[in-house]
């Protein structure tokens, strides 16, 4: 896995300097533009094309807070492909209530109840994002042991937000019925 922070010469951070990311992206876009390598060997052209692709991907990931969060967890080995993460029972119980309300609304549409459910889900989601913000704000100055603790907590919150994303999709479907 390519370390996009290293690629851009930036320290790993949940809150990197957006201006520096953009600056590096534009600098590398010029440096690795395939048109400048037309007269080079096929091997060199392929290398430049690969670097151009990495540059584009690095910019997409590092400039988007959600993608960056996922990427850092993956880079640090906290997310594994196909992982079966078990969410806390208390969270699942809360979500079961939300899902039951959604099922009820499928059979008995009620715009006021749906709006109330959206408000509840928004509040839960905002609370999760606030917790993530607190954990990631001090990440850069933490010791390695503290970072491991923070990353473990961020991973849990990340999976909760993913779960809420699916619920939000169900709410959107219920709105369009």
TrEMBL record:
Domain J: 3-75
A single MF term (Gene Ontology): ATPase activator activity
Gene3D superfamilies associated with the record: DnaJ domain (1.10.287.110), HscB, C-terminal domain (1.20.1280.20)
Annotated InterPro entries: DnaJ_domain (IPR001623), HscB (IPR004640), HscB_C_sf (IPR036386), HscB_oligo_C (IPR009073), J_dom_sf (IPR036869)
GO biological process terms on file: [2Fe-2S] cluster assembly; protein complex oligomerization
Source domain of life: Bacteria
Keyword flag Kinase: no
Keywords: Chaperone
SUPFAM superfamilies: Chaperone J-domain (SSF46565), HSC20 (HSCB), C-terminal oligomerisation domain (SSF47144)
Function: Co-chaperone involved in the maturation of iron-sulfur cluster-containing proteins. Seems to help targeting proteins to be folded toward HscA.
Family to which this protein belongs: Belongs to the HscB family.
Name of protein: Molecular chaperone HscB
Species whose genome carries this gene: Pedobacter metabolipauper
Organism ancestry: Bacteria, Pseudomonadati, Bacteroidota, Sphingobacteriia, Sphingobacteriales
């Amino acid at each position: 896995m390519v370390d996009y922070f290293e690629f851009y010469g930036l320290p790993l951070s949940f809150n990197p300097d957006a201006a520096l990311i953009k600056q590096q992206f534009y600098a590398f876009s010029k440096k690795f533009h395939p048109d400048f390598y037309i007269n080079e060997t096929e091997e060199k052209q392929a290398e430049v094309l690969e670097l151009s692709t990495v540059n584009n991907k690095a910019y997409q990931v590092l400039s988007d807070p959600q993608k960056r969060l996922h990427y850092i967890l993956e880079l640090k080995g906290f997310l594994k492909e196909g992982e079966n993460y078990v969410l806390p029972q208390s969270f699942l119980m809360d979500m079961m209530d939300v899902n039951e309300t959604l099922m009820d609304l499928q059979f008995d549409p009620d715009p006021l109840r749906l709006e109330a459910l959206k408000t509840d889900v928004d509040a839960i989601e905002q609370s999760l994002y606030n917790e993530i913000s607190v954990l990631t704000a001090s990440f850069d100055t933490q010791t390695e042991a503290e970072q491991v603790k923070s990353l473990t907590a961020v991973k849990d919150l990340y999976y909760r937000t993913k779960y809420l994303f699916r619920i939000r999709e169900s709410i959107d479907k219920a709105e369009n019925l």
